[in-house]
Structures are given as C-alpha cells and as structure tokens.
Specification:
Number of strands: 9
Strand content: 15-25%
Largest sheet: 8 strands, mixed, barrel
Bound molecules: ligand C2E, calcium ion
Order of helices and strands: HEEEHHEHEHHEHEHHEHEH
Structural class: alpha/beta
Shape: globular
Number of helices: 11
Length: 260
C-alpha cells in the first residue's frame, strides 16, 4: 500500500470507530398510489480534511482492503438507530441497506444483524439487504448459506443493478432473493429506447413469475414516472421523486410529498 493509501486506511478505520458517516435516505414509493414504502440508505463520509466524500470514493477501497466488514457493521448500526428513532413517526417504513459480496461470506453476519435488530426493537421484515447482481453471481456458491440464513430470519434480499451482471435463470432460481432492482441505465432510456422498454417488460414478467418485488431506480423525470405507472406493481426511486436526503430533509420531504 502507498503512503496515501495507508492514510486512507487509518482514516477509514477511525471513521468506523467514531462514526464519522452520515446516512442519507432516498425514498421509494409505489407507482400506483404514490405511497412512501421505504428508503434506501446511502452513506456519506465527513472526512476531517477532505470534506464530504461520496461512496464511490471509499467503498471500493474498503472492499479491496477488507475494511468493508467493519464499515458495513457501522452503517447497519447507524441505520438501525435511525429506524428506531423514526418508529413512531413512520411506522411502516422499510429500510434498504447496501451490502458487499464480502459481507455475505461471513457466517457471523446473520446473527449479528438479528441481535442488532432485537436491540433496536425492530422486525426483520422491515429490512432489505441489497447486493449488486455482479456481486451475487460471482460468489453465489459461497454466499448462499449466509443469504439463506438471512432469509430464514425474515430479512428481505434484493438484487441491485439488475440487468448489468450475468445472472443465469438457474442461479436466480436458486438464490433466495425477493426483490429485483432494475438498473437505472434502463430507466433512464425508457422514453426514447424501445429496447429499454422491452427489458423493463421482461423484468416485470420475471418478477411476477418468481414472485419478487420490482423496483425501478433512476426515475429522473415525471414522464418516466408516468410511463412506469402502466406497471402499478413497481416501486419507484429516483431524483424526480427525491434525491438522497439527510434525516431532516427526509422528514420535511415526507410531509410535502403527502400533501401532493
Ligand atoms: P446504488 O446502490 O445503485 O445506489 C444508487 C445511487 O444512484 C446513489 O448514488 C444515488 O444517489 C444515485 N441515484 C439515485 N437516484 C438517481 C437518479 O434518478 N439518477 C441518477 N443518475 N442517479 C441516481 P450514491 O449515493 O453516490 O451511491 C453510489 C453507490 O455506492 C451505490 O449505488 C452503492 O453501490 C454504493 N453504496 C452507497 N451506500 C453504500 C453503503 O452504505 N454500503 C455499501 N456497501 N455500498 C454503498
Ligand atoms: Ca443499492
Ligand atoms: Ca442500483
């Protein structure tokens, strides 16, 4: 590791201990009736000298150096604490948390998450863990045990960035996922590109056949939102609904969205 990377390693380790992160929450709504059903938790790091850092600046590094396990644990703890604070205000709010392929190699993870859930008085059914399609397919054999345990404990599992990896139908059938998230690449092109429309059609059919929830991310304008309303079962997420929001911003946004 270079000296710079040594610094980053130490910084990230310290950040995990001192919880220098701030979680942002991007709303997810039903397309049929615009009900707010959940949020995706997205991490930001307030670095003491570098300022605000987005996940792309440190998640890949954390994955390369193995610090991701500690980082994920910190994020889960912070997210659960916020979910518990919001319990009385947003009773049914689902939390979707991103995890990495290395996280699902740890046989301790399901028990740890379950314990944290109990400590915060939360029901597992309000929690979804998102793994990218690429991560799922690379490590499926070794991660299947952890994924199955999470599923058995009542947590939901989602395949993120769906359509960008190389899932085989057989693997999809074997894996205990209950949600597909169509990658924003397809959502973005929906209005202009017939192939993107066909891909969304296929995802809708696949999700229905496999009894999975379908989320479309990356909805950036009203026309795309309206186009997608032809599939009332889809849950939508994207800048047009709301950007990732801080805790305070989410509370304000929730009231204004409800007022329409
Ligand atoms: P992702 O899981 O695909 O998360 C969605 C990313 O798309 C977020 O970027 C979000 O800000 C952005 N986004 C949301 N709506 C729109 C839209 O309408 N248009 C466009 N162009 N972009 C949109 P962000 O927060 O920078 O996160 C980037 C990636 O970092 C995430 O991609 C995820 O893979 C990873 N990540 C974020 N938080 C965590 C975390 O807590 N743990 C782990 N392991 N990874 C995380
Ligand atoms: Ca995600
Ligand atoms: Ca995604």
């Amino acid at each position: 590791m270079s000296t710079d990377n040594n610094h980053l390693y130490d910084d990230l380790l310290r950040a995990c201990i001192h919880k220098e992160f701030e979680l942002y929450y991007q709303p997810q709504v039903t397309l049929a009736d615009r009900m707010v059903v959940g949020v995706e938790v997205l991490v930001r790091w307030h670095h003491p000298t570098l300022g605000l850092l987005y996940p792309d600046a440190f998640i890949p590094f954390a994955e390369e150096t193995g610090l991701i396990t500690q980082l994920t644990e910190t994020i889960i703890k912070m997210a659960f604490a916020q979910r518990a604070l919001w319990e009385s205000q947003f009773t049914q709010l689902h939390f979707s948390i991103n995890i990495s392929s290395q996280d699902v190699l740890s046989l301790f993870l399901p028990n740890l998450i379950e314990e944290l859930c109990e400590q915060n008085g939360m029901q597992p059914s309000f929690l979804t863990f998102e793994l990218t399609e690429t991560a799922v397919m690379q490590e499926l054999t070794s991660s299947l045990e952890v994924l199955n345990r999470l599923k058995m404990k009542g947590f939901h599992l989602s395949i993120d960035d769906f359509g960008t990896g190389y899932s085989s139908l057989a693997k999809l059938y074997d894996a205990p996922f209950d949600e597909l998230k169509i990658d924003r690449r397809f959502t973005k092109d929906l209005l202009a590109n017939h192939q993107a429309q066909t891909i969304v059609d296929i995802c809708v059919m696949l999700a229905k056949a496999l009894d999975m929830t379908l989320v479309a991310e990356g909805i950036e304008d009203e026309q795309t939102f309206e186009y997608l309303q032809r599939y009332p079962e889809i849950i939508g997420q994207g800048y047009w609904i709301a950007k990732p929001l801080s805790r305070e911003q989410f509370e304000q946004w929730f009231d204004s969205w409800k007022r329409g």
